[in-house]
Amino acid sequence: MHGAMTAPCFRPPSCATVASLPPQSLPQFSRRRRDVAFFAVLGTIGGCYVLLMVLLLVANAAYTAPDHFIEVLNKPEIRYALKLTLVSCTIAAVFSLWIGTALGYLLSRFRFRGKWIVDTLVDVPIVLPPLVLGLSLLILFHLPIGGHRLEDLIQEGGRWVQDRLPSWAPDALRTAQIRITYGVPAVILAQFSVACAFAIRTMRVTFDQINPRAEQVARTLGCSRGQAFTRITLPQASRGMLSAFTVAWARSLGEFGPILVFAGATRMRTEVLSTTVFLELSVGNLEASVAVSLLMVAMAFLVLGVLRLVGGELGR
């Protein structure tokens, strides 16, 4: 019949090679052989990097004798650096988790003007060279504001608080020297500036994976937005919060550039494990620097192992 619609002619896709055929058209033995070859290629490519990491660890372990490792850890400056590292990394990770939870939730759930600017600024510490970030922090606290540096304004504010402390306050708190640059607070701030960016990214991904429907239902039942967040969303984000804290802690552990520029590497004052490696290398004590490096590797393995154990990822 003239003008009648004709059904389109179906043409199966041409197969130039046997590999392009559907799996059912291939013999089972041939498919298995191709699968083995596929995994062999992937294993070889990925195994090169894994092998490199293993060789690096083995080389460090073989270079340092156990007796020398214990001797290095018994040095007072190394023990001080270890203590300061544990304290500063924990404080920086806690602050990073607070900021990361708040900002990650805002970036995940809401649209607002300038969101892309905030999203870009969060990634700046990740892509910037560490030395540039440390230099920027140093310039910030020496920037004149109303004729006074920010560092001086903070010190004046601290002295004002110390003068108004109650009589039962400890004397150490009254006489404490309030200093940011080239002090312990500078170490924590330098670690926080980089680690917080990773915590924000982790928490944003966490909130993206949580269905907002339960939160919306809670609001229809009379909960405020804050109550719905704390009672519904936050408990579901517990694993993500643990991941964010662990990532921030591990990133703080390996921070070096901003600490060196902004806080310095003064023995028994602002020395952490990462700067200890630099100080030992600068005096030619290679064995001590390798021993401290092994200690940092062990700490990183412990933190990441706890993360995978609590997160239920071991054995996968």
From TrEMBL:
Where in or outside the cell? Cell membrane
Describe the location of the ABC transmembrane type-1 domain by residue ranges: 82-307
* TM annotation in the entry: 36-64, 84-108, 120-143, 180-200, 288-310
Q: Give the GO cellular component terms, alphabetically.
A: plasma membrane
- So what does this one do? Part of the ABC transporter complex CysAWTP (TC 3.A.1.6.1) involved in sulfate/thiosulfate import. Probably responsible for the translocation of the substrate across the membrane.
Its chief place of residence is membrane
Say which family it is in.
Belongs to the binding-protein-dependent transport system permease family.
Provide this UniProt record's keywords sorted from A to Z: Membrane, Sulfate transport, Transmembrane, Transmembrane helix, Transport
Designated name of the protein:
Sulfate transport system permease protein CysW
- Membrane topology classification: Multi-pass membrane protein
Q: Which organism is it from?
A: Caulifigura coniformis
The molecular function terms of the Gene Ontology recorded here are: ABC-type sulfate transporter activity
Q: How does it assemble?
A: The complex is composed of two ATP-binding proteins (CysA), two transmembrane proteins (CysT and CysW) and a solute-binding protein (CysP).
Q: Which gene is transcribed and translated to give this protein? A: cysW
